[in-house]
UniProtKB/TrEMBL annotation:
Residues 70-427 form the AB hydrolase-1 domain. This is AB hydrolase-1 domain-containing protein. Keywords: Hydrolase, Signal. PANTHER family: 2-SUCCINYL-6-HYDROXY-2,4-CYCLOHEXADIENE-1-CARBOXYLATE SYNTHASE, AB HYDROLASE-1 DOMAIN-CONTAINING PROTEIN-RELATED.
Length: 470
């Protein structure tokens, strides 16, 4: 075990850094021309020598008289890059951008910052879990990256180098999901560099990322209750809980091989459905409320033997979604050092008791963590954060529900917490929140009136193959 050394012992002088030359760039996810910067930072802050290039995308403020404090954007995962989520500029940050630069950072090992990449095997649908794990181990070992230098602490120090290199005195920080962990670590290391924080889908300081069974089950139970309370959904799927339990019990006995038309190619071939794949897909569907309201239809279809809709949704995570571009090796580098060592048998038993999201994820980490070969990191006890913070939660978030934000807020001197009743994981794009983000960043010490969040409607349930109800 090793502890993080005090910040003062680790950071080389920053004043000598020259501002990097920027360039005009066109990146997927936006039609407009942006500014791209590359900042060279030490690979190992404890022993400067080798370096790594960190990418930052700057979306300039719309108004010429921009405020001097930009908004730094930290993506989730770990494994997602700022350049992977460029649509957020329009979806959530358009009002903020009116007066502030938006700076999206690609964490080291993601996106355009030397992405650690393992491609999805083309025959993933027919591979066993053991074969998938073996393929992942081979890729991680073949990459041969110094994974011990890709943790949260190094990423936070990279952010400070970017701030100085781009010439900003103070910044605001928006982080989502794992990005909230990174944001909290950054502001604790460099409290004078941060003016205000917006944390969406808040990770608590004591949260262990793989221990998500309790929160996932709570979100699933909420979806079941809402279906039972909705006349059309209850009529279409009257035995939903029993069907889900039956599927889970069947897959717990061993993988199910289904001959079906591949949703990608329409070619008829065998597809393997394992307990791990089933649970992981259900978990991912619960992230967004619009997706969660398709879950009763997916479960019922699978129970009837028609697995095509479920497999198509499972494939979406690797084919089309932003998560498909995430770095699996970077995820392992962070989680295997910072979370897996805290995953005690007692925590696993308590977290998975009664949850559909049980042992397979823990078993997979136990198989893959030796490949990244990172030492356990023991973080120092959290210290108080003085910067004003706006915490955002979705009431039905299966990963970072409101209780996680409440735990994080105990370590903040000035925190406001807004909860979207009809929200899932990461809610900044919903309803009036883009306006509230601007209001908070303009006056971060002023109380935000979140009454408009109650106007965000729940999606409609999908009852058949035609899609959600009108």
């Amino acid at each position: 075990m090793r502890s993080l050394l005090p910040a003062a012992l680790l950071v080389a002088p920053l004043a000598v850094l020259a501002a990097p030359p920027g360039r005009t760039c066109h990146l997927p996810g936006t039609e407009e021309a942006l500014r791209c910067f590359t900042v060279t930072v030490p690979l190992d802050y404890r022993q400067p020598g080798k370096t790594i290039a960190i990418h930052a995308t700057v979306a300039p403020a719309y108004r010429e008289a921009a405020r001097p404090d930009p908004l730094f954007v930290l993506a989730g995962g770990p494994g997602q890059a700022g350049s992977d989520i460029l649509p957020i500029l329009e979806a959530a940050l358009r009002r903020v951008r009116a007066t502030r630069d938006i700076v999206l950072i690609d964490q080291r090992g993601t996106g355009l910052s030397g992405k650690l990449d393992c491609k999805t095997p083309p025959d993933i649908d027919t591979m066993t879990e053991e074969q998938l794990d073996a393929d992942a181990r081979r890729c991680v070992e073949k990459l041969g990256a110094p994974y011990q230098h890709y943790g949260t602490d190094a990423a936070a120090r990279d952010i400070e180098r970017i701030r100085v290199a781009l010439g900003y005195r103070q910044v605001n920080v928006w982080g989502a999901s794992y990005g909230t962990r990174l944001a909290q670590h950054y502001v604790r290391l460099y409290p004078n560099s941060v003016r205000a924080l917006v944390l969406d889908g808040v990770a608590a300081p004591d949260q262990v990322i793989p221990a998500g069974g309790r929160d996932a089950q709570a979100a699933l139970d909420a979806t079941f209750r809402q279906c039972e309370a909705n006349a059309a959904c209850a009529r279409a799927f009257p035995a939903l809980r029993a069907e889900f339990a039956s599927l889970s019990a069947r897959l717990a006995q061993g993988p199910l091989t289904v001959t079906m038309a591949d949703p990608r190619t329409t070619v008829v071939r065998p597809v393997q459905i394992s307990s791990r794949r089933f649970a992981a897909t259900v978990h991912r569907v619960l992230y967004a409320q619009a997706d969660a309201y398709s879950l009763p239809f997916l479960i019922h279809s699978a129970y009837q033997g028609r697995w095509e809709p479920f497999v198509a949704r499972s494939n979406r995570d690797t084919d089309l979604s932003a998560d498909g571009s995430m770095s699996g090796p970077l995820y392992l580098a962070v989680v295997c050092a910072e979370d897996f060592p805290r995953l005690t048998p007692q925590l696993v038993e308590a977290d998975t008791r009664g949850s559909f999201l049980a042992a397979p994820q823990v078993t997979q980490l136990a198989a893959l963590c030796p490949a990244v070969n990172v030492k356990p990191v023991t973080s120092a006890a959290p210290t108080m954060i003085a910067a004003p913070a706006l915490l955002l939660s979705g009431a039905q978030d299966p990963v970072t529900p409101p209780r996680r934000a409440e735990a994080a807020a105990k370590w903040m001197k000035s925190a406001q917490h807004l909860v979207v009743a009809n929200g899932g994981h990461v809610v900044s794009t919903l309803g009036c929140l883009p306006r509230l983000l601007r209001e908070f960043l303009d006056q971060p010490t002023r109380r935000i009136d979140g009454a408009c969040l109650a106007e965000i409607p729940a999606p409609t349930f999908q009852l058949d193959s035609a899609g959600p109800q009108p």
